[in-house]
C-alpha cells in the first residue's frame, strides 16, 4: 500500500527541477510583456512631445495649468453665451462654458456646443493655416463632455438655422483651453436627465431606446442633474423669486425680518416628530418651526415679524410631499381678529402668483418643457370656506369624513376638485378647524370651543399653509400644553414671556418647497428641494 501511495504521489507532482523551469519561463514572459508595454508608453509619450514641440500653434490650445487658475489677472473681456447674436457678426469674442456635445467630423473639423446658464452656442474648430492645427482639432475631439472650456473666436452667421443650440450664430474657434476636465463616464447623461416623459414615450413608440433615469439615481447624482434646464433655469430660479416676493411684500407691509434659534429645549409643535440631541449634557431638539420665538418677538413689541429659515421634522412619512428638513416661510403679527392674518395670506399669495406669471415666463417654460403643467387657477380675491362648509361639500359628494377629524390626503384632493368645479379656483382658504386637531397654542372659537380660530390654505388640493390666532393668556396656554401632552417645564420660558402683557396675535407658516412644487404642479417635493432630506436620505 505504501509503494502504491508513493507511486500515485509521484504521478501527480512533477519533479522539483521541472517546476523551476516552468516558473522561470512564466516569469520571463511576464517581464517581456512589461518591457514591451513600457517601451510602447515611452514611444507614445515621446511622439506626443515631438508632436507638441513640432506644432508651432501649441499655445492656442491645451489644459490650463494650475498657476493660471489661481486668480491670476486676466484682462480679456468675456461675453455671455446668451449675448451672442447676429449683431456681433465678424467680431472677436471670448466665451466660457461647458462642452455639452463634441462631434468630430474627420481630421480637419470638430463641432463643439458650449453651454452657459442654459444657453448654448455651436463652436467650430477647423484647420486653418497659422491659426488652427490638426493637433488642435484632435485635442478638441478628445475632450470629455461637461468639461469647462475657454474659447476665443470670431462670430459668424450660418445661412441655415441652427437646431442644436439656442444661439443662431457660430463661433469660429481660434483658441481653446480646458479649465476643468470632466471625468468619464458620467454617472448620468445630462440630455437623458432633461428628457420629459413625453420625449421618452415618443421614443418608445418610434421603437427607439431612451434612458429613463429614476428619481433615486437623479438624487444620488444631484450635482449633474441640477444642470438640466428645468432645474438650472426653472425650478430654483422660481424658488428664489418666491423668497424675494415673500420678503419684499412683507417688508412693504411694515413687517420685520427676524432670525430665531434652531436648537431649543422642547418641542415647538408637540408630538413625536422631533429630532432630539444632546446639548452640552442637556436634552434638546431641533426646532419644528420658529413658532415659539416669533410669538416671543411679538411680546417684545415687534408688532409684525417674519422669518425665512430651516425647519426640522422627524417625519416617518416617506411620501411625495414630506421632507425632514425644509425652508419655512413664517409670519406672526398683532391682530384684533384672526381674519386679519387671512387677509395678509390672501394679498401676499395673489401678489406672488401674479408676479411669478408676469416675471418668470422663461423659467416656467423651462420647467414645463420637462414637466408639462397647466398654470395655477386662482381668484383675485381668495375664496374662504369654513371647515364645516368643506365637510358638507365632501359629504354631499358621497365622501365619508369625520366632521371633527383632520382631512386625509384623499379628502383634501377631493375637496380641491369640488372647489375647482364649483368656484373655478385651485387656491383657497379653509378656516375654523376643530380645536382637537390643531397645535396647543391655537385659540378656540369664542362661540364654539370645539372649533378654533385657525385655517389651512390649499393649492391644487394639497395643504401648503397652516395658520391661526395664538393663545396669549399664559395660564390658558399652560393648560392647553398639558392637554396636548407637552411637558410645560420644557417650554417655561415661552409661557413666561406672556406673563408681562401679551397682545392678541396670530400668524402662519408655509413650506417653500411645497409652494414651488404645487405652483409648478411637480409630482414630488424632492424636485423642489436642492438637496432633499427625507426619512432615508442624508446625502449628498
What is the secondary structure topology, with strand pairs?
Blueprint: H1 2-12, H2 16-54, E1 61-63, H3 66-69, E2 92-104, E3 109-116, E4 119-126, H4 134-141, E5 148-156, E6 170-180, H5 190-193, H6 197-205, H7 215-220, H8 222-225, H9 229-252, E7 256-257, E8 263-264, E9 276-279, E10 282-286, H10 291-299, E11 304-312, E12 325-334, H11 339-359, H12 361-370, E13 383-386, H13 387-396, H14 409-423, E14 427-431, E15 454-459, E16 462-469, H15 474-483, H16 492-496, E17 505-511, H17 512-519
Parallel strand pairs: 1-6, 4-6, 7-11, 13-14
Antiparallel strand pairs: 2-3, 2-5, 3-4, 5-6, 8-10, 9-10, 11-12, 12-17, 14-15, 15-16, 16-17
Helix pairs in contact: 9-11, 9-12, 9-17
The SS-based structural class is: alpha+beta
Tell me how many strands there are: 17
> Rounded to an integer, what's the Rg over CA atoms?
33 Å
Q: Tell me the β content.
A: 15-25%
Largest sheet: 8 strands, mixed
Q: What overall form do the CA principal axes indicate?
A: elongated
What's the total helix number?
A: 17
Strand order of the largest sheet: 7-11-12-17-16-15-14-13
What portion of residues is helical? 25-40%
* CA-CA gap between termini: 69 Å
Low-confidence stretches: 1-13, 43-52
Q: What does the average pLDDT come to?
A: 91
Amino acid at each position: 500500500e505504501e509503494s502504491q501511495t508513493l507511486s500515485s504521489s509521484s504521478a501527480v507532482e512533477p519533479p522539483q527541477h521541472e517546476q523551476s523551469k516552468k516558473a522561470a519561463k512564466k516569469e520571463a514572459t511576464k517581464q517581456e510583456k512589461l518591457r514591451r508595454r513600457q517601451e510602447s508608453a515611452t514611444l507614445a509619450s515621446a511622439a506626443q512631445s515631438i508632436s507638441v514641440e513640432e506644432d508651432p500653434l501649441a499655445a492656442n490650445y491645451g489644459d490650463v495649468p494650475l498657476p493660471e487658475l489661481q486668480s491670476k489677472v486676466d484682462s480679456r473681456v468675456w461675453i455671455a453665451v446668451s449675448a451672442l447674436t447676429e449683431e456681433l457678426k465678424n467680431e472677436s469674442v471670448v466665451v466660457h462654458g461647458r462642452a455639452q456635445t463634441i462631434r468630430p467630423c474627420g481630421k480637419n473639423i470638430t463641432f463643439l456646443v458650449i453651454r452657459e446658464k442654459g444657453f448654448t452656442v455651436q463652436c467650430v474648430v477647423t484647420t486653418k493655416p497659422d491659426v488652427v492645427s490638426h493637433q488642435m482639432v484632435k485635442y478638441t475631439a478628445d475632450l470629455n463632455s461637461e468639461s469647462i472650456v475657454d474659447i476665443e473666436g470670431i462670430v459668424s452667421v450660418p445661412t441655415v438655422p441652427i437646431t442644436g443650440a439656442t444661439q443662431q450664430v457660430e463661433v469660429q474657434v481660434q483658441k481653446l483651453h480646458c479649465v476643468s476636465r470632466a471625468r468619464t463616464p458620467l454617472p448620468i447623461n445630462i440630455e437623458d436627465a432633461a428628457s420629459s416623459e413625453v420625449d421618452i414615450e415618443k421614443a418608445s413608440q418610434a421603437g427607439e431606446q431612451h434612458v429613463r433615469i429614476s428619481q433615486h439615481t437623479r438624487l444620488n447624482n444631484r450635482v449633474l442633474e441640477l444642470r438640466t434646464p428645468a432645474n438650472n433655469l426653472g425650478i430654483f430660479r422660481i424658488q428664489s423669486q418666491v423668497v424675494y416676493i415673500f420678503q419684499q411684500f412683507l417688508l412693504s407691509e411694515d413687517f420685520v425680518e427676524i432670525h430665531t434659534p434652531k436648537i431649543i429645549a422642547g418641542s415647538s409643535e408637540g408630538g413625536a416628530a422631533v429630532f432630539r440631541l444632546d446639548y452640552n449634557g442637556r436634552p434638546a431638539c431641533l426646532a419644528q418651526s420658529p413658532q415659539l420665538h416669533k410669538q416671543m418677538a411679538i411680546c417684545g413689541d415687534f408688532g409684525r415679524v417674519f422669518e425665512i429659515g430651516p425647519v426640522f421634522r422627524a417625519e416617518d412619512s416617506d411620501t411625495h410631499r414630506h421632507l425632514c428638513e425644509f425652508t419655512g416661510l413664517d409670519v406672526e403679527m398683532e391682530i384684533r381678529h384672526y381674519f386679519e392674518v387671512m387677509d395678509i395670506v390672501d394679498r401676499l399669495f395673489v401678489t406672488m402668483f401674479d408676479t411669478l406669471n408676469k416675471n418668470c415666463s422663461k423659467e416656467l417654460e423651462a420647467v414645463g418643457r420637462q414637466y408639462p403643467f397647466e398654470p395655477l387657477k386662482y381668484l383675485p380675491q381668495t375664496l374662504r370656506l369654513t371647515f364645516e362648509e368643506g365637510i358638507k361639500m365632501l359629504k354631499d359628494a358621497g365622501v365619508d369624513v369625520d366632521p371633527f377629524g383632520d382631512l386625509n390626503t384623499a379628502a383634501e384632493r377631493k375637496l380641491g376638485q369640488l372647489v375647482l368645479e364649483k368656484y373655478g379656483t385651485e387656491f383657497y382658504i379653509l378656516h375654523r378647524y376643530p380645536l382637537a386637531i390643531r397645535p396647543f397654542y391655537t385659540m378656540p372659537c369664542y362661540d364654539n370651543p370645539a372649533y378654533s380660530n385657525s385655517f389651512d390654505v390649499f393649492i391644487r388640493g394639497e395643504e401648503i399653509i397652516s395658520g391661526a390666532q395664538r393663545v396669549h393668556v399664559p395660564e390658558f396656554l399652560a393648560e392647553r400644553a398639558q392637554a396636548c401632552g407637552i411637558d410645560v417645564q420644557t417650554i417655561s420660558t415661552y409661557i413666561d414671556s406672556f406673563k408681562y402683557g401679551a397682545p392678541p396675535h396670530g400668524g402662519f407658516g408655509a413650506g417653500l418647497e411645497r409652494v414651488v412644487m404645487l405652483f409648478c404642479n411637480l409630482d414630488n417635493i424632492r424636485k423642489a428641494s436642492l438637496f432633499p432630506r427625507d426619512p432615508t436620505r442624508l446625502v449628498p
